[in-house]
Structure formats: structure tokens, C-alpha cells
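Quick one - inputs below.
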Amino acid sequence: MGRKRRITWLELLLQIPFIAYSATILVICFLLVFTPFRSTADLARGILVSPNSFTFDNFADAWRNGLGIAIKNSMTLSLLTCLFTALLGGFAGYAFSFLRFRLRNGLYIFMYSGIYVSTMLIALPLFLQYRQLGLVNSMFGALLIFLGLRLPFSVYLFKNFFDEFSIELIEAARIDGLADLRIFFWIVMPLSVGVLSTVILFNFTAVWSDYLIGLLFLQKDSLMTIMPRIMNIFGSGPMVTQATPLGQGFAGLLVSTIPIIVIYALAKKHYITGLTLGSVKS
Amino acid sequence: MAKNKLTYRNNGYWFLLPALLVVAFIFLNPIIRMFLFSLEGWKYLRPTGFNNFENYLALLTDPHFYGTLSNNVIIIIGVVPAVIVISLTFAQAIFGKIPGYSLYTFLFFIPVVLPDIVVAKILTEVLNKAGPLNDFFNWLGLGFLDQDWLGAPGLSLFTIIVSLIWKNIGFALLLFLARLTTVDISIYEAAEIDGASATQKFFFITIPMLASTISVYVVLQVIGLMSFLFSYIHVMTAGGPGYSSTVLEYFIYLNTFRLQEIGVGSAAGMILIVITMIFIYNYLFASRKKAAKAQEIR
Amino acid sequence: MLKKLGLILVALCALAVALSAQSKNPPVTIEYWTVYEKDSALLVTMQKAADILKARDNITVDIVSKGDAGFRELLTASAMSQSGPDLVFNWTGLADIVTGGMQGLHYPLNKGNLFSKAELAKLLLLDSCTDVKTGNVYGTATGNNYIAIAYNKDMMTKAGIDWSKFPAKWTYAQFLDVCKKLKAAGFAPFGYANKEGIFADWWHSFSFPSYVDKISDVIPYYGKKPIYNKVFDKFCKDWKAFYDAGYFVEGGNTISINDLWGQFTAEKCAIIPLFPALYSVYVNALGEDKVGIMEWPSMGGTGKLAMASPIYGDAIGITAWTKHPKEAAAFIKELVFNKEIVADFVSQGLFPVNKEFKLTDFDIPGTELKRFAALHGQQTLYPEGHAFWVREYSSVVEKFCNSMVLGQITPQQYAAEIEAALKLK
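Output:
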């Protein structure tokens, strides 16, 4: 298939949907990238007209409204979630792949089902419990939720990856008298850079794009995460006493996509690895 | 054979324990609580004790509940086949190195990775009655397409479906491409020698090759559309107008957080869980049979 | 040596006295959630009240600007867990204060001497904060707010309408006539942003009372009477006719309520609802000369309330779970009884809720607002329909008004949805 061939009429025809779909994507990207730099008066003319202003005010205003703090919080939570899911998920994946113990299958199915449970279902009951435990408005509490939400998928990725490992390698290490903990850190992990990147990629994105958990569990201004903050900037409600902060909100949207685009650009290969390992929850 | 190699070790629990505890705390325990909520009567946000499954009865006699369920089904039927057809065509063409294919793979990737809220916010602006899309249609002279895409009861669900297809094409495409790259090219070459046309190759080689990948995609997408659509719908239409674009997940949200019918919301939640789990376990057991075979070989 | 000891003793005594003086008023921090944005004039005034309280009673009021995104969700979760802020603002109107109170969200002001009987008697709009069954007062308005309309004088002139001859309040015929002329001149008459259904919720609650004789007819509590009747039907049909005539801004069904005021300030519509906090917004955007104020027009009804004017209140309530109800009440008192603070509110167009304060005691900025205030004082006022609604009612209105106005469901079905929601309890 890689050979140079004559271009057929079918291929020419096929260009039409390709170009059409690309065009819609480019329009969305255009809106995402240019809207934040337009002044409110300019935006009032319409969102998809040629800009006649250039300003950084929207970013300044968004920052004043707490976007910076939100980015810091979201970044902290995302990175910590990545770290701990990699560690705990790796352990669990190792156990499921290389160790044999009673209830292994049952526990795996339990863990696996977690991937598919809607966050909406757990939000309210968990909130009530968190209140009792005094964990609302604590970064630790939120981190725990994100860990719980992201671990099932991480474990699933790790297990699928480890299943492809040569078991002889592990057995040989065991015969050499290495403890499992050492095998995990010295032998398995160094060979798992690919799956680690995948796990980090997916978990970072998921935590970064979360709305509901951040909204309910991190209510303080100083703890708010990025998506609730953006929604907050967009919608101050029917009682807003200033013009629609469309540009400000879009500034938030643009800033919020930058880390995602960067991390995907760096690790696109691993996104595909993740897909082939089985699956993705969108 | 494999069994002999994987020696029975109890320390597996120690490796598993941290993850298991966290997951049990975050998933199992709220779901059990939700189940208990669904059995209780609620008045003004306070439980009034066991109420003979009245929440479930209220749900089953609520026409809006069936409306939201059918919206779910419509979304799934509308999105999944369309995405499969479009992405397969795209995947085949990109695999055949259509001119500009690397640019396309890069571009098509963008809607997939953008957070739901970002996509939904931008689309809401674009699809406004007074927004650029309608301006564009008018400019083309297609005035009849100047519609209230998100605000008209008959259209909002359709618009959501189209936007979901738009967003999810890249995901399926990557999934299929990843599978295609592992296909032995010699099969195609042999078919070419036998004089197979591009269409024949597509239908008789590509699609059978991708069958298992397609089934993986279907499961993931269906679950995604059932359980992870909240922020998208919330931003785009807020389930409206009326219940015309409300899906089960959003129905749960409306009941618990807006109407404060904690019991009914929890009952709907339990139904969502049951549906999801039935779906998952069918899939899981089907794939575990295969995996078991693979393990024997190993 | 003794001298030294004595000095130390004296110093210790002084320290003890200082400490005990401080411990009389141990510092308390309370949290107040509002939906107004941080730098809005209203919050600046509230902060002023908070500063007074801090200096005098050592009570810190942490004013948290939440915005409406997620406000309901947070309140629901807070009410269920009986924890969260000490004071909450409620923009859905006073009705939510009562519903909220019944739901265990609010701490009654008449309980535990938080407010004395005399103090409560001073408050306007008290009825609408009171649970009829128990007599509990679940909150108060912070201001006596008019629900009015602002109009663009330029557009009126361009449409050939002489705004200087406007009556104190439009009858429905006059209102329709103005809309017709504006439409003919190529202007969108009335602003419309109803994606969330909030605008229709307002329209319903401000306009429906003109069809009835007394405000309690607006909502028969808990389905005692059927919602659907001739009057309701007429109201819905008038509303639909107004919509179908194209008097609302086109495409308003997909426009978020956040963009409503922008329609007026960007001169996309000639008439817009006006609440006190918004007067300065309009004036800042368009200039004082352009903005006219009128009472909310009478709608198509022939009830006794047809020519009366609705008022409402930005409600504030103490939460049921607060550990500092006294301190929270002190803050409310500061907002409604402190003349300095009230004067500040009045200067933003928010009229006092304390019956003892006369409007004439205060300096009202701007000739138009002054003229309006004088007229407003002569109107028969009633708390808007919202005040007697329960949340189930308004949630149905928000969800189904679009369908009704677009003709997807009949007024009868619309009423049936409301009845179903009310009977669910």
C-alpha cells in the first residue's frame, strides 16, 4: 500500500468529505484561538466576523477573576492524580497480571466496572459522606475522588500491557530471589514507559476537563478548578451587572486547551497505544 | 501451563489493596448509599423511611422518563452507525495514503482531545439562532436552513447527535487506523493481484479485519453516550427545550440537583447502573472467552 | 528586685485585661454566598456593611461571589448535608426562601430572638418570606425592588413614538401598539434570552398577576385548585400571540440569560426588563439621555391587579446549619436598617425595604430615576407572582414555557405539567 500509485477518481471524490470536515474543525479552532483576543465591542458584532481589534484585556480580566488560581489547582490535581494512578494502578495491574490469588477475577471485574460508572451517580452520595468526614474543600479529598475515578481505567491499561510481557522474565527474576516490589520497580516499570505515558495522558486530560467534581467538592475561590471557573466566568447569572464576558470566557477556554494540546502533541503515539491496548472512555 | 508459572501468592492483596480501597470508597460506597436513597421517601431533602418502591413506581409512570430513555436510544442509534461508516471510509482512505493524509489525521484528532465543555461552548455560540452558522446558510442563499438549532424542540436532539458525530469521528478513526496498521499488507497485495477493486477490498478485507475493533468501539461509544454526556448536554441545551434533549444521565441530574427529588433521581441512577452493567458484562464475558483461549496458547 | 516583680505583675495584669477585653467579642467568621459578581456596586455596598460589622463587633463576613453556574447544585448539596455557608442570597426570588426554609435550608428569623417582633414589622415584603402554615419567616428582602422596563428613547423616536407622552403605566393595548410600531420601524421590540427558561419564568410571574384579582390566585398552593382555567388559558394564548408576532428578539430561545442585558446595551432591542441593579448598567452603556424607565406594562388580563405593579426582593436568608445565627442576623440588620448602607443602595436604584425609611429621605441619582421613583410611590404594589411560587412550579415553567410558546404543547398540557409537578409531593 505504501507504493506510489495513480490517483483514482474515488480518491478525488473522497477529498470532498475530508476537506469539508477539516473546514469545520478549522472554523472551531479559529473561534477558539482568536475570540479571546477580541474586545467586547468587537465581539458584539458577531463571533465569526473578521476581527477589528486586538487586546489582552480578556486574559487580564479572566486572571483577575481567578483563572490563574484555577489553573494552578487543576494542574496540581491533575499531576498528583497522574503520579498516584501510575503508582497504585501499576501495583494493581502487576498483581492482576503476575500474581495469583483468590478472587482475582472477581476483583478485576469489580475494578473494571468502575470505568463505566457515571460520575453523576456518585456525586451526591459521596458529597454527603465527604461532609461528614470534613473532606469537602480539601485538595486531599478531591485528589482521592479523582484517584478513585481514574484508577479503574489505569489498572485496566496496566493489566492489558503487562499481559503482553514475557512471563519468563518475571519468573527468572523470582528465581534470582527478587521480591515482587523490586521486580516491579527495577524490571517492570522501566519497560513500561509506553503504558505510563498513556495512563498519564488519559488521566491528565480527564482530571483537567472535569466539571462536576470540581464544582461540588472544591467550592472555595482559592480551591476552584479550571472548568467550574470557566463556567463561572461565562455565567455570572441573570443578575450580571456588566456586559457578557464572552471574550473572558473564551480566554479561559483557550488557556484550558493549551496543556491538553501540548500533552497530546508530545504523546500522540501513546494515545494510539492506549487505543490498541483496548479501549478509551471518552 | 500458565497456571504453573503464575505461582499462587498471597502478597497479591498487598499490591492490590491501595487501589482497591480507593476504588471501593469512591464507587462502591456511594452506589450503595444511592441504592438506599432510592428505597426511601424524601420530603424536603430529608429521608422519611422505606416507601415500598414508590420512587421506582413514580419513575415508571413518568412519561418524561420514557422520553429520556428513548432520547438515549435515538442518540446511540443516530451517532454510532454514522460514526462507524464515516470513520471507516476515512480510515481506509488515510490508510491508502490519500493526499494530505498526515494533515488530516492531525486535524481530525483535535475534536477528540478538546474537553467537552470547550467544544460544547464553542458550538453553542456557532449554533445560536443569530449565530454564524445561520448567517452562513443565509449567505449561501439557503434561507430554509436558518433554524433555531438548539432552541426548537424538534431540532435540539438532532443537533446534539450531529455534533456528537462530529466530535467522535476522530476517535473511531484512530481506533480503526491503529488496527489497520497491524494488518498484514500482503493480504491486500494478494487481493490486488486477483483483480479486486478498492471497494471490494474495503468490504471483503478491511471490514472483516476490523470486526473486533468495531465491536470494541461500539461498546465504548455506547457507554460514553449513556454515562458521560452530562457536561456536554448541560452546556449545549441544558436538556431542553422541555425534555426534548434530556438523556438519562441528565434526567438524574435534574431530579437530584434541580427538582430535588432525591429518591426518584437515585432510582433513575440505579436503572442507569443496571443498564450499564448488563451491557458491560455481556461484552466482558464475550471478550474473556477470547482472552481465555489466548491465555491457553500462552 | 521587688520593683521588677511589681512591673512584671502590672504588665501581666494589663495583658490579662487586654485579653479579656478581646474575648468579650471573640472573632467570628461567617460566609455569605451571593450571585452578584465581585466588583458589582451592590457587593461593594455589602462589603461596606461587612466592614462596619468587623470594626464594631469583630464579625468577619466573607462575601463569596458564586455566580449562578452551579449555585443550585451547591445549595442542594449543602442543604442535604446541612453544612456550608452561613448566609445565602437567592435570586430566584423570595419564593425560594420559603421553599428553601421548608426544605431545611433556612433558619427562621423569628426564632430565638434573632429579630424582634418590632424589627420584623418594619420589613416590607415580609409576607412573601413567611411560611403560611408555620408562620416562620425564612429570610428577608434586602431591598424593595421594582420590576420595570427600560426603553431606548432613540429607538422610540425613530419609530415615531413620542416617549415624553408615555403614561405612568402602559395598558396592554398601548404596549402592543408601541411594539407594533417598533417592529414596523425595523427594531426588535423586547429583549429575549430564554435558553435556560429563566426569562420565561419571569415573564410568567410578572405578567400573569395582571389576569387575577389577588396575588394568591397566581398559584393555588399544592394543587388544591386545578392550575388550568380560563384565565390561565388566556394568559398563555396572549403570551404565544406576543411571541408569534415577533415582538421578542429573534432566536432568543438559544441565547443564554447572561446575554440578555447585552441586547439592550448593544441596542439590539428597544425594551428590556429593568431591575434596580441594572439601571446603572444601562446608563453606563447608553448614556443617561437614552434610557427611559416605566412600570412593567399591564398584560392582557382584566384582573384587579392589571394596573398594579409588581415588586420583588433580592432575598437573603440565614442557613439552617449555621453555628453563628446571631452574627448572621447582625449582618442582615446592617443591610436593611443601617441608614448609611441603605442610602448607598438607594443611590444604586435599590429602594429601601425598611418601611420607616421614606424614599424622599434619600438622594436618588438621575432625573429619570427620580421621576420614576415619584411615580412608583403612587402605584399599587404587589409582590410579584414568583414570591408565591414553589420551586416545583418554576422548574416546570422553566422547562416547558418554550414548548408552550412554540406551540408544541397546548396551554392545557402546560398546566398539566405544573399540576403533575405539584402533586408529586
